[in-house]
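CATEGORY: protein folding

GOAL: derive structure tokens
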Amino acid sequence: MAVEEGGCVNNAFDAVDDGFHTIDLRSNQRGNDSKQPEAEAESEPHGGQEIHALRCGWGMFRPAWLQRFRTAKWALFWLCWAGAIQGMVVNGFVNVVITTIEKRFGLRSMQTGVVAGGYDMASFACLAPVTYLGGRMGSSKPRWLGWGVLLMGTGSLIFALPHFLVPPYRIAGDEPEDLCTANRTISMNHCDSDSTSEGGAWAVGVFVFAQLLHGAGATPLFTLGVTYIDENVSKKMSSVYLGVYYTMAVVGPALGYVLGGQMLNIYTDFPTVDSETIGITPQSSVWIGAWWVGFILSAILCLIVAIPLLAFPYELPGAAEIRASKVSEAHEGAASKSAAFSALHELPQATVALMRNPTFVFLNLAGASEGMLISGFAAFLPKLIENQFAVSASEAALLLGVITVPAGGGGTFIGGWLVKRWKLACAGIIKLCVAVTLIAAVFTFSFVLSCDDYPFAGVTVNYNSPSVTGGGALAAQCNAGCGCERARYAPVCGRDARVYYSPCHAGCRAATRNDSAQLYRDCACVQHDGWHPIYYGSLSSLCPDSNSSMPYDAINSVCSSDCPYLWSFVFLAFCVMLFTFLATMPALSATLRCVREDQRSFALGIQWIKVRLLGTIPAPLLFGFLIDLSCSLWEKTCGSTGACLLYDNLNMSRYMLALALVGKLCSVVFFFLAWWCYRPPGGKNGNGVAPALELGAGDKPPTISAGQTNGLQPHENGYCNAALECTDHL
């Protein structure tokens, strides 16, 4: 027996021809062995590419050590930060600086309403293509998310650009023209020398373009981001994960309010100007804070978050098993077709299929009503607090930031937790939305609280001096010869507790700078009663003139307010916000459950289109229009109307109450109709509680027999799945 390569050969069989032929398989075996690697080589590229695409990394760089982060928890971690940054910028920084950019660039509330609505305009335009293309089978949702965050950072940089395009801010009140000068002549061409280029349409255009980039970049976050989480976690944990995600999205605006408010305590030109040398403090009505710093910071954060988001694969390990384990709760009509829409020309057909789902339609209308209130009050609630309760812009932002964290974030998280704790099915979830929205509607009566208007000389109260015929509301005999037509708006608080348009309109002829305050003396329009207030550095009090070395008649600060309703309003606003956000997660869960699984990304896109078209886009315009209607004094510069200088507090509070109450009642009606029209698969009535048995990641879905209707059998209180436990209808 000889040993050869590939096996053994017995030579004895070669000598005798016994009629049997030895079959040597060595050559064939070697041939098959040589072909097998070729076959493996042919099949490896396709499988290798698929495995490579499911690994974490960027392009061809997908190291093994990076795969430990390929989990749903790490995806949620970075998505939470992306959502927080989006909320911090769009619903935090932008809303905080609304009042500041109005004063800095001479804008009206309607114009800043257009700026606030630019975000939703871009979202409206981008939602359908982004959700449809990004939600298709095999599409990489993390790639859409990462590039969207980078685009959002670019928008933040552009939003800060107007600060660098205008000359340094000029403080009104310390120029000779701001004081009363006898027999002063007014130049007819003084408008040519004023810096009127700082305001106008160009600033609005830059802000709106930046907001368009914000909206386009944030579009995937709450559509593709939500479905990416829902597809990669079990049904039992989906509400918890989404609750954490939306909680961070609510914490973002709180961070924006707090950080943005602190930035407003810094002077806008702080790199080149020391605010203490110009006699102005954050309490002054003409103070302009560093509104642009927050947007530079957010652009840097967007770059940091986008890099890890781009590294995630289009699906995480175990996603296929999770999809197989989920049982559909889609509305009966929506569940009748199982084919997914995969071609662009089928987009109208997909839209019509969703529009035939009445529960989905009414949930969209409820979301639009809620979105209108959230968007409008997020933009203008700081202004309302600032004007109603006589607080600075930074203090108003800080108050909103403090109540947004526990109310908005806590309400969002608790809403998701209640769905899981009570194991609510779609019908029970919608009932929860009805209840909490009705409670929120009751607390909207907080807007009844209103403070008295400032005693503004010539506007809300008369001058102590007789008026001048034909001189306008701000003219009186005490300032008739001062030539105040050119004086800019620089309100001062007189010792008679009245506000005057400027030192000139108060008849002040002398000014003294002390620390960070501007003190005015010899003010003819300020009522004299034998005593003067005294300024002690940062402390101002009322004392007899004999004890004062620095008496003054007026100061460039806000008059103190004795309105007692501030903290009552803050508490009631906290309650409104808490119950409003309690419905956020349940409403989202109901939307995801009442449509087919293959329609979820597209359904969220359609929902956000409706919410923006009917709610968040017109909201800032409507709120801005009504706030402008409550304006009592407009800034006039060379014949053009600028920003509003004084508001009627009573009218403002009544307008806000009407908007809040009507919006909440509409939400209650729409949520109720969504519950009334809901039909679960196979039955007229739906279980309010989800089945008690949860399918694990490795379990197979229940088999549906021909005699059953989608696996559901009649039960005395509704319908239940034969493979699962029966639960009563709530």
Observations:
- The first helix runs from residue 12 to 15.
